[in-house]
Write a structure and sequence with these properties.
CATH superfamily of the largest domain in chain B: Conserved domain protein
Number of strands of chain A: 0
Largest sheet of chain A: none
Shape of chain A: globular
Radius of gyration of chain B: 26 Å
Strand content of chain A: under 5%
Largest sheet of chain B: 10 strands, antiparallel
Oligomer: heterodimer
Low-confidence stretches of chain B: 36-64, 200-208
CATH superfamily of the largest domain in chain A: RNA polymerase sigma factor, region 2, helix turn helix motif
Low-confidence stretches of chain A: 75-84
Helix content of chain B: 10-25%
Order of helices and strands of chain A: HHHHHHH
Distance between the termini of chain A: 40 Å
Number of domains of chain A: 2
CATH architecture of the largest domain in chain B: Sandwich
Helix content of chain A: over 70%
Distance between the termini of chain B: 96 Å
Order of helices and strands of chain B: HHHHHEEEEEEEEEEEEEHEEEEEEE
Mean pLDDT of chain B: 76
Structural class of chain A: mainly alpha
Largest interface: A-B, 53 and 37 residues
Shape of chain B: elongated
Number of domains of chain B: 3
CATH architecture of the largest domain in chain A: Orthogonal Bundle
Radius of gyration of chain A: 16 Å
Number of helices of chain B: 6
């Protein structure tokens, strides 16, 4: 892959990778670092993908792995700097929803982001995260249940 | 009822800073420049295959692959013994470029020092990050060397270091437990066992994965040991009396007459660490002397006997291997002493 090809790939998928990273680690700086690292790893790979969907799935899978590694390292040094992306919320309801999702455990935030934010199906998420469809469905159910507890209202499936 | 479409709307507004794009492209261009400075990896693999076929060309292969047995083992033995290494490893060194792709990553055998009984092997592991194997999570790599015709070589220690290339580099000593390697062993392979942390379970506990072992088959060149010579003064060590010796760069072998030329068919030939110590002193041509720390291992030989129950309680012969902490060049020595008994070499 050439730097020019990397630039094209970056333009196409940068926000997806960044949003996925941000949803998991909830830290703008970490999400930016992970995004850059994921694209540089892709740059170092010689493999090609048959279509954009598979390319995107690989990038998301790599992003999730990088996030997990980062969180493990963060746990080891017991320091979790917290920031958020409040500027993206327009209404008070959006703020409430954004904060509620942010209060979920990382694995639930991730599944909410991939399902609602990126529009992936349960089957696709299962493939990206190396989990069974049942496990993803269970995580979605539990994530919605926790959101309901936080918000005091049901959320749409 | 909260409509989660709102979440999608919010998410769609999340954008990464434009500066990140420029930084990534700049880093990629920098990486590409560095890549061009390095020799091509594929060229190295081709040269390695040619060198194995032709023999004696391995030094050039190492240069093409960014590793060389001299630098690898000089560093290894220096760190092990905390002293300078002067031996250049050429008589027993060999560069390899044997590679295997496994679920946890790519294993590359880099180089080896080899004699029929002792072998040092260096290898690296490039974790498969796309499969969730992080370089931070590598626990250990364990290799068993197998020659199904003659013997197994085992190691229980490997030095490991994370390289600047992001790979894990390992070096370990292997010792034959039940025989000796032929110069060009057939059906020779190393079996790789890897442990690493890879998965957050539902409870966020970390579990280790991939305990299966994977094989890399290749044909190494084994440098034969010199022939056994009679000792002018027998040496008692590790429960036996040796009357023969052979000196290689990696070890001094002492044996009784039976052990100096053991028959091919053996009921038992088992090697273990001996409950014995040996002070080994090298005597150089200029008269200087150097104590060489050595571990003592012993092989007991038992041959089949007609009409009796086979047992290893009464061995027919033995060998002692005084394994040097640092290699020595036999041609530079005029004599070697073991617990005060001198063995003249000239």
């Amino acid at each position: 892959m050439t730097p020019e090809q990397l630039a094209q790939l970056y333009d196409k998928f940068q926000h997806t990778v960044y949003r996925t990273a941000l949803s998991y680690c909830r830290n703008v700086q970490d999400a930016e670092d992970i995004t850059q690292e994921v694209f540089l790893k892709r740059f170092a790979q010689e493999r090609t993908f048959p279509d954009d969907a598979q390319e995107k799935a690989w990038l998301i899978r790599m992003t999730v792995n990088q996030c997990k590694n980062l969180l493990k390292a963060v746990r080891r040094r017991s320091a979790v700097p917290l920031e958020d992306a409040d500027a993206v919320c327009v209404t008070p309801e959006e703020h409430t929803l954004w904060d509620a999702v942010g209060a979920l455990p990382p694995k639930y935030r991730l599944v909410i982001q991939l399902y609602y934010g990126e529009g992936y199906t349960v089957t696709e998420i299962a493939g990206m995260t190396n989990r069974t469809e049942t496990a993803v469905q269970t995580q979605l159910y539990r994530a919605r249940k926790q959101l309901r507890d936080i918000l005091g209202e049901e959320v749409t499936p | 009822m909260i409509d989660m479409q709102h979440y999608r709307d919010i998410s769609a507004r999340v954008k990464i800073r434009p500066q990140c794009r420029e930084e990534v492209i700049a880093m990629a261009m920098q990486a590409e420049k560095q890549q061009h400075r390095r020799p091509m990896r594929k060229l190295g693999i081709v040269l390695a295959a040619a060198a194995v076929a032709a023999g004696g060309m391995t030094a050039a292969v190492g240069a093409a692959n960014n590793w060389d047995y001299r630098s690898i083992f000089t560093k290894y033995f220096s760190e092990k013994t905390d002293s300078a290494v002067e031996y250049d490893f050429t008589p027993i060194g060999q560069n390899l470029d044997v590679q295997g792709e496994f679920p946890f990553g790519t294993v590359t055998l880099e180089s080896m020092l080899s004699t029929p009984y002792l072998m040092y092997l260096s290898w690296n592991v490039e974790p498969n990050e796309a499969a969730g194997v992080s370089p931070d999570d590598m626990l250990w790599s364990f290799i068993t060397v197998m020659d199904s015709v003659n013997c197994n070589l085992m190691s229980n220690e490997a030095s490991a270091a994370r390289g600047e290339d992001g790979k894990w580099h390992f070096t370990a000593k292997f010792r034959s437990t039940n025989g000796a390697l032929e110069p060009n062993p057939t059906d020779f392979y190393v079996s790789v066992l890897m442990r690493y942390d890879a998965e957050n379970t539902a409870d966020d506990a970390i579990i280790a994965k991939d305990d299966t072992d994977h094989k890399l088959t290749f044909t190494p060149q084994i440098t034969p040991d010199p022939a056994m010579q009679p000792l002018s003064t027998p040496i008692s060590l590790a429960g036996g009396t040796a009357d023969h010796y052979a000196l290689s760069p990696l070890a001094l072998v002492l044996s009784d007459t039976f052990g100096s030329t053991p028959p091919e068919r053996m009921f038992s030939a088992y090697t273990e660490q001996a409950d014995a110590s040996a002070e080994v002193t090298a005597v150089f041509a200029d008269g200087t002397e150097q104590v060489i720390p050595a571990e003592v291992y012993r092989t007991l030989y038992t041959q089949p006997k007609a009409g009796t129950i086979e047992t290893t309680d009464a061995p027919d012969g033995f060998r002692c291997y005084l394994e040097f902490a640092q290699p020595v060049a036999p041609e530079a020595l005029t004599a070697i002493r073991v617990n005060g008994t001198e063995i003249p070499l000239r």
